[in-house]
Design brief:
Layout (H helix, E strand, L loop, with lengths): L3 H5 L4 E6 L8 H12 L3 E4 L4 H4 L9 H12 L3 E5 L7 H6 L26 H18 L5 E5 L11 H15 L2 H8 L26 H29 L5 E2 L1 E2 L8 H5 L6 E3 L9 H16 L3 E5 L18 H11 L2 E6 L25 H20 L8 E4 L2 H7 L11 H14 L4 E4 L10 E4 L7 H12 L3 E5 L18 H7 L1 E7 L8 E2 L5 E3 L3 E5 L5 E4 L9 E6 L2 E4 L2 E2 L1 H14 L13 E6 L2 E6 L5 E11 L4 E9 L4 E5 L1
Parallel strand pairs: 1-2, 1-9, 2-3, 3-4, 4-5, 6-7, 7-8, 8-9, 10-11, 10-12, 12-13, 13-20
Antiparallel strand pairs: 14-17, 15-16, 16-21, 18-19, 19-20, 22-23, 23-26, 24-25, 24-26
Helix pairs in contact: 6-9, 11-15, 12-13, 15-18
The protein binds alpha-D-galactopyranose.
The site of alpha-D-galactopyranose (GLA) has 9 residues, from loops.
Length: about 650
């Protein structure tokens, strides 16, 4: 099976989405000149080129792409060639209105934007396969081709009639009989019992709350249908070029795809990452997504898209201040990326993304953005031989699962204030601040090697996952588990006692009497100055815990907020950030897990990749970092002994 190393060949892939069809052909040689000057060695072509490649049904125009592929090859620039199926040409929707998706309210999503395709439409799938086949046949042997990029950010939903047909088929495969479906969905509630498969529909607009397991299954189904579209195209290109790796780009922490499952189907895992330059936690957001992507890839991964400057889709869109683009790119490499790419090469002059930055901004070659890109290209070339292929060391696993997210994030629950991604962020950020490098894992993955496992929140846990966690603790690992975990089974059926009994025994909880969610801004005061946010619980301990921190005051006065029984911790609230960090640092220390470096100044990140130590200063002020011994900084080609000073947004890549 080919992998990322087949495309990188000891280089860090550096480049971005290139949409030359938006520009007169005279611009292309100039693009190649600027790419070469900046050290660009890879571009992604054709992501949204379907109507250019197939202007009329079955009529192809490949001349322009032939010339581009040749031009790029002559310039020494490799091509990640995309199947253009994320944005069908207007003729497809016009000819086959059934290719257009419908939302839960029955409204059609029309062409004129992008991603207006139904994953369930047979006509869409047929036409997508045909253009993929034509591309693969034509360019499979082209020397510029280094990787295939299937579609773009799969993210569509469809509640229409063809989707309904496929949903029924998917449910038959899952449940076999209507009886089993009725049991799983709990259709005794509100007279929802199904007597004929034809009665089953996607969760469309309803008068009042919809069946939660129907919604959960629809999310599972949607992820699976999109994956079917993706693997169908993958199989076509693989047939032509078994030696060329295949990827599809994920959106970061996106709810619509079970990315654990998807990653298994890819040769290269890639992600698009756009932290807000004005977000004080932008670096931590980046670290989270990078850790998750690396874990899905089980090794080096590809940063397929980031912005060289501003995006165009937030309320207020700030550019990156000088130095930040380089810093965040090096952060991705530190956390396992062997490719640093952008959306997009040249900033558009027309279309919906003309205010979105590019590596070459409207200011052109003299612009600060391009000048910084050029500097980054040189930095990446310098470190590439030492870093590519290197593994990132992590003793801590954060558990995350899409099915649990889908089940927990529904209507009519104890508190709408609980936002799963935000809870995940709070925990990962606390670990980041404690200087601990983390992988992510699924709760049923093999956790061997992780001395500390944390579960920010897994509302739904299968029996196999519960057994896995319990066995891991029994095997000597430390587990720290957040509230609202182990509540539901795989069908979103509340477990007896509202928390799996095996987990209650693990933590020393006899009875979970009630959940007491907190209002925004409300705090649950606890012993020792700990203050809980978002949530609290009325727990009756069984007397076996070794340590507890109790609630103070209010209805829960004296009851445990935090319990530790041996190596298993349970947090029935979300402690304020400093206390969460301290608690996780303590659990890590007890588990024998050390931070990457002791005594790091605030805002400085340290990550080990292979034998390299990356130091990243996310602050705007220079800092001095104490170092063990003498290191050689690959970026500056200087030697540092015992300490090193990093400037504003400064970085060092140190070799012992
Ligand atoms: C996504 C898409 C790109 C572009 C960028 C803009 O990542 O894949 O085509 O729209 O967003 O940020």
């Amino acid at each position: 099976m080919p992998g990322l190393s087949d495309a990188t060949r000891r280089r860090i892939l550096f480049g971005g989405d290139y949409n030359p069809e938006q520009w007169p052909e005279e611009t292309w040689p100039e693009d190649v000149r600027l790419m070469k000057t900046a050290g660009v060695n890879s571009v992604t072509l054709g992501v949204f080129s379907w109507s250019k490649l197939e202007p009329r049904p079955g009529v192809h125009d490949f001349g322009w792409l032939d010339r581009l592929m040749d031009l790029l090859h002559e310039g020494g620039i490799g091509v990640v060639l995309a199947t253009p199926t994320a944005s069908p040409p207007p003729w497809l929707g016009h000819l086959h209105p059934d290719t257009l998706p419908r939302d839960a309210d029955g409204r059609t999503e029309w062409w004129g934007g992008r991603q207006h395709f139904s994953h369930s439409s047979t006509a869409y799938r047929r036409h997508a396969a045909a253009i993929t086949e034509a591309l693969a046949a034509r360019y499979g042997g082209h020397p510029a081709l280094t990787m295939w990029h299937i579609n773009n950010e799969y993210c569509t939903y469809d509640h229409g009639d063809e989707a309904a047909t496929r949903f029924r088929r998917w449910l038959r495969d899952r449940y076999g009989t209507l009886d089993a479906l009725n049991t799983a969905w709990g259709t005794a509630f509100w007279s929802q019992g199904y007597g004929d498969w034809a009665e089953v529909v996607p969760p469309r607009r309803a008068h009042y709350l919809r069946n939660p397991t129907q919604v959960l299954d629809f999310r599972r189904f949607t992820s699976d249908m999109l994956l079917e579209c993706c693997t169908a195209e993958r199989d076509i290109v693989r047939r032509h070029t078994p030696h060329i790796p295949v990827t599809t780009n994920f959106m970061p922490l996106w709810s619509g795809q079970d990315a654990w499952r998807w990653a298994e189907e890819e040769d290269v895992v890639s992600v698009d990452l756009y932290p807000d330059p004005r977000d004080p936690f932008g670096a931590q957001e980046g670290a989270l997504v990078q850790d998750m992507t690396r874990s899905q890839a089980r090794g080096p991964w590809m940063l397929m898209e980031q912005a060289a400057g501003a995006v165009n889709w937030r309320g207020v869109n700030h550019p990156k201040p000088r130095g930040l683009n380089r810093l965040w790119s090096l952060q991705a490499v530190a956390r396992g990326a062997d490719a640093v790419c952008y959306f997009q090469w040249r900033q558009s002059r027309q279309g919906a993304e003309k205010f979105h930055s590019g590596m070459v901004s409207h200011a052109g070659e003299r612009g600060r953005t391009y000048q910084e890109v050029k500097q980054l290209g040189a930095d990446l070339a310098r470190i590439a031989p030492h870093v590519t292929g290197g593994a990132v060391a992590a003793d801590v696993a954060v558990l995350h699962d899409w099915h649990s997210w889908w089940a927990g994030d529904q209507e009519a629950r104890p508190s709408r204030e609980v936002d799963y991604p935000d809870v995940l962020r709070a925990w990962h950020r606390a670990l980041w601040q404690a200087g601990l490098t983390t992988d992510f894992a699924r709760p049923d993955h093999d956790l061997t090697g992780y001395r500390l496992v944390v579960v920010p929140q897994l509302y739904l846990l299968t029996d196999a996952a519960v057994d896995n966690l319990v066995a891991h603790v029994r095997g000597g690992a430390t587990l720290v588990c957040g509230f609202l975990t182990g509540v539901a089974d795989q069908d979103d059926r509340i477990r007896p006692g509202a928390m799996d009994v095996r987990l209650r025994e693990l933590f020393g909880i006899r009875t979970l009497h009630e959940w007491w969610p907190l209002r925004p801004g409300e705090r649950a005061e606890c012993e020792g100055g700990l203050r809980g946010t978002l949530w609290s619980e009325e727990l009756e301990p069984d007397g076996t815990a070794d340590e507890t921190i109790a609630y103070r005051g209010g209805e829960l006065d004296g009851l445990p907020a935090v319990l530790r029984k041996g190596r298993a911790w349970y947090l029935s609230t979300l402690p304020e950030p400093d206390r969460l960090r301290a608690l996780l640092a303590r659990a890590a220390a007890d588990a024998g897990v050390r931070p990457v470096l002791d005594g790091l100044p605030d805002g400085v990140e340290a990550v080990r990749r292979g034998d390299l130590l990356f130091l990243l200063n996310h602050g705007r002020e220079p800092v001095t970092v104490d170092l063990p011994g003498t290191h050689h900084d690959l970026l500056t080609q200087t030697t540092a002994t015992d300490r090193i000073t990093l400037g504003r947004y400064g970085a060092a890549v140190l070799k012992p």
